[in-house]
Amino acid sequence: YGPAPIRTGLEQSRNLMTVRIAQDVGMDVVAEYAERFNVYKDMPELLSYSLGAGETTLYQMVAAYAMFANGGLRVEPTLVDRVQDRYGRTIYRHDRRECENCTADRLSAAAQPFLRSNAERIMDPITAYQITSMLQGAVSRGTSRVAVGSLGLNLAGKTGTTNDAKDVWYVGYSPRIAAGCYMGYDNPRPLGKSAFGGTLCAPIFAEFIKVALAGQGPVTFPVPPGGRFISIDRHSGQRLPDGATGANVQVEYIKDGQETVVGGYGQTVDGGWKIGADVPLYDGVPAQNIERVQVRGQSRALPKNPSLGSISSGGLY
């Protein structure tokens, strides 16, 4: 494919791009974030883990995605919210948020009760919003476009398919709810032809989220303060004038003070391996080494442009 924005790689599940980035930033950094989000407890610093080679659970993956949805705050899922004794006294409460003004006898109009979150922050809110924005692109243009994107809801999510389609995944979220799907045999074996995260799990997620959000008005992901929107070409990454319109225009949210890319790719990450941009298109061949051969056969018409919206394996992550 050649150089492409990270957004495109995530939307189209280009695993090689993920490997190159992991090689460039270092697997120690990848392991730190995987453990911070509780995807793994003690992750080996092996490059294959950048594509999800280790074992985890759907429970852990949904919790990790929920931390993107809430802006980077730690989420600890539970099956028990509260336990009361026979007198109605609470002896256990999972939600440890503090309620301000909840015990006051009288309140003024300006002092309304509200819950103050004391959850640990594990990611910068702007970074979490940027990841959510890219995962929204995976819904609208990527491997879950058909099953989830067609709902027309404000959703973010990602497909996943292991080697030989022995396991398929889908984890997605709205601003209010995160959910996931996993399919696979107890003794791993291929799930069948055309078995991908986008064809098996994404439709299940779509049916669930459609019912879960029924009757709720449109809700957008909150934009954290401290940044600004810019326009780029989503294929090349080239900076576009503010207010640019068209199918190729992608609006990105960047931190205040962060430099913008003016002409094409700001930094090409190759992970230490050569990519197409480093290879000359044609070096030339000495005439004495050329053998001319005429071949007759059938011809076949090829599509003018490759499609980027078809169902693919969804990546190993």
Structural class: alpha+beta
CATH hierarchy class name of the domain at 6-76 and 121-212:
Alpha Beta
Which residue ranges are poorly predicted, with pLDDT under 50 across at least 5 consecutive positions? 279-283, 302-314
In CATH, the homologous superfamily of the domain at 6-76 and 121-212 goes by the name: DD-peptidase/beta-lactamase superfamily
Strand tally is 10
Question: What is the end-to-end distance?
Answer: 19 Å
Indicate the proportion of strand residues.
Answer: 15-25%
The Rg value, from CA coordinates, equals 24 Å
Number of helices: 6
SSE order, one letter for each helix or strand: HHHHEEEEHEEEHEEE
Please provide a written account of the structure.
With 317 residues, this protein is of the alpha+beta class. Among the domains are: 163 residues, DD-peptidase/beta-lactamase superfamily (Beta-lactamase), CATH 3.40.710; 37 residues, no CATH class. 22% of the residues lie in helices and 15% in strands. It has a 3-stranded antiparallel beta sheet, with helices on both faces. A 3-stranded antiparallel beta sheet has the order 9-8-10. A two-stranded antiparallel ribbon has the order 1-2. The longest helix is centred in the middle third of the chain and has 16 residues. The protein is globular and about 65 Å long. It starts with 5 loop residues before the first helix and ends in a 62-residue tail after the last strand. About 6% of the residues have low confidence.
